[in-house]
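Tutorial handout. Part one gives the primary structure; part two gives the three-dimensional structure as tokens.
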Amino acid sequence: MTTIENGNIPVHEVARKEWGWHQTPASVKLARRILRKWLASHQVKFFEDEALLCFSELLTNAIRIPSPDGWTDTVWSLYPDRLRIQVKDYSPDAPKVCYPDDECESGRGLSLVHLVSDDWGYETCTFLDGKGGYLPGKYVWFELNG
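Part two.
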């Protein structure tokens, strides 16, 4: 189990699941269904509505950015006091909350994550490019408190 620090007190994951999703829109629907079952299996269905919305938005954004292998990785971590979901994103650009006008058909995803989650952010990192080199990217994450 992974440990993160909460002040000076170590907090251990209760459960962790890592998934890779093919970069197609159909994967988002499947990912939501599997996340719903995973939450139920850990008796934390109270996270369901907010987690499904935020996860769908982050995964939808991430699959639009091609990865070398055509997959987007995610990590679901359950702690005693919260749920944290991370989505791998191959863009080096920082995510930005936008407030599009009423006529725009997209651009509201991070606004929803910002409004619904208890916390969210990103961490820059590098990924193997499949040719022996590295690509810049990030993990975009959100947390819901229990």
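Part three, for discussion. The helical segments are 25-41, 48-63, 109-116. The chain has one domain: 10-98+106-145.
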